Amino acid sequence: MVRAKVSDIDRDSSAEKVEQILQGAMQEFLAHGFAGTSMDRVAAAAGVSKATVYSHFADKEGLFKALVERLARKKFQSIFGSEPLEGEPSQVIRQLGTKALELMDTDKEHSAFMRVLIGESGRFPELAQVCVRAMHKPVLETLTQYIASHPELKIADPEAIARILVGSLVHFHITQNVLHGEEIVPMESDRIIDALMNMIVKSAQ
Q: Which pTM value belongs to this model?
């Protein structure tokens, strides 16, 4: 019984350390980019020893990958939840699009991290591929499966439509928020959602 309690404490302590390290790493990557961040900086920002960082993450690439995967899981859960997509496409797709734009607009840390990732993608393409694999692929697969499960939409290529849907939302967010273009090319997010609904749902009526 005592052993179980000690084991639970060890697991809790380990999880706390990992969270400290990830928070410290996020702080450093946002401030200095991938190239400018060292494991020493991460350890200092996290308030742990360098040995503790290495006990959980083999190298800086692994730490960056863990951050991307954590962000991806958080974003996916926030938008799609834990249950399979169900319901009428006219409601489900509108809700997903609206929620996605709201989250992209309010999650400033995510936007800042994506700026770092895009900026570093030229020198570190493998890191950008981690983002595509962990963040974009599950979203595209989930939407593709949902659209394909609704033949009444009369969509010949569900995967392409899923890409158009996601691409439109991401482009809107990048243009308006990441690149600070809201005053240059102003547009309400409702117009984007309405246009996508007309293209995906109303075309089948």
A: 0.83
Give the type of residue at 10. Answer: D
Residue 14 pLDDT level (bands cut at 50, 70, 90): confident
pLDDT of residue 107: 86
For the chain, give every domain's residue range. Answer: 1-57, 65-204
At residue 9, does pLDDT exceed 70? no
Residues contacting residue 117 through CB under 8 Å, at least 6 positions apart: 68, 127, 128, 131
Residues ≥6 apart with Cβ < 8 Å to 27 = 45
Handedness of CA 100, 105, 110, 113 (dihedral sign): positive
Query: Domain 65-204 falls in which CATH fold?
Result: Tetracycline Repressor; domain 2 (1.10.357)
Buried b / exposed e over 40-77, threshold 16 CB at 10 Å, is ebbbebbebeeebbeebbeebeebbbbbbeebbeebbe
Which candidate, 19, 117, 35, places its Cα nearest to that of 70? 19
Q: How far apart are CA 11 and CA 62, in angstroms?
A: 21
pLDDT tens sequence across 150-185: 999 999 999 999 999 999 999 999 898 888 899 999
Distance in angstroms (rounded) separating the CA atoms of residues 173 and 189: 9
Homologous superfamily (CATH) for 1-57:
Homeodomain-like (1.10.10.60)
